[in-house]
Design brief:
By secondary structure, this protein is an alpha/beta fold. It is 39% helix and 22% strand. Strands 7-6-5-8-9-10 form a 6-stranded mixed β-sheet, with helices on both faces. Strands 1-4 form a two-stranded antiparallel sheet. It has a two-stranded antiparallel sheet with strand order 2-3. Helix 4 links the parallel strand 8 and strand 9. Helix 1 packs across helix 6.
Length: 208
């Protein structure tokens, strides 16, 4: 039931907005019936607590040997530190590029070389930025067990990318569960479901 609970939080807090008849335009230029900003969840106490506890439980279940968490800057920092607090393990975060001042770090925090790390992200789309962060952590000599995130669009390309990098990936909820819950809660209508489902399979063709 965790996946349904998180889907409801995403919809009720408007962290996710669905507009199948008036698509959003992403930074990439792709047209999309969904816009997701999981940082909105942090402003809602019940949603934030559920994300914290469920993410910690997901990590404990799938990566029981984890000894540290590294969040992906910036949106993966908050959920990562929340989960690390529940689990009682060290936390750090990885930048997209090294700082140009001070110590010039790209991985922040006091993470020891022998830690077994789970990388935490807020959202997985194609997986490109998440996997780039994972490669940075691996290149620094750390063992990465896998990735945990709040939500994924469930693109087939993302699954392929994570498989190629030999990186297990688990999320609290996903697009399929979200749109089914959106239908039950009245956020979308039955006649919009086919369009919403087709977008996930071929997002590059949506709205063309």
């Amino acid at each position: 039931m965790n996946d349904i609970t998180i889907a409801r939080h995403l919809l009720q807090t408007e962290a996710v907005r669905l507009r199948p008849d008036e698509p959003f335009t992403w930074a990439s230029g792709l047209k999309s019936p969904i816009y997701c900003d999981n940082r909105v969840l942090l402003s809602h106490n019940t949603a934030r607590n559920d994300v914290k506890n469920m993410l910690a439980e997901l990590i404990k279940t799938h990566f029981p040997e984890a000894t540290a968490i590294v969040g992906v800057a910036t949106a993966g920092i908050a959920p990562g530190v929340l989960a690390a607090d529940v689990l009682g393990i060290p936390f750090g975060y990885v930048r997209s590029e090294a700082k140009k001042h001070g110590m010039g770090k790209q991985i922040e925090g006091d993470i020891k070389p022998n830690e077994k790390i789970v990388v935490v992200e807020d959202l997985v789309s194609t997986g490109k930025s998440s996997l780039e962060a994972i490669q940075i952590v691996r290149a620094a000599g750390f063992e990465v067990l896998g990735l945990a995130a709040i939500f994924t669009y469930g693109f087939p390309l993302a699954a392929q990318n994570f498989e190629k990098q030999n990186c297990p990936m688990y999320t609290l909820s996903n697009y399929h569960i979200l749109i089914e819950e959106a239908l039950q809660m009245g956020y979308v209508q039955q006649n919009q479901m086919e369009m919403l489902s087709k977008w996930r399979e071929k997002p590059e063709e949506f709205g063309v």
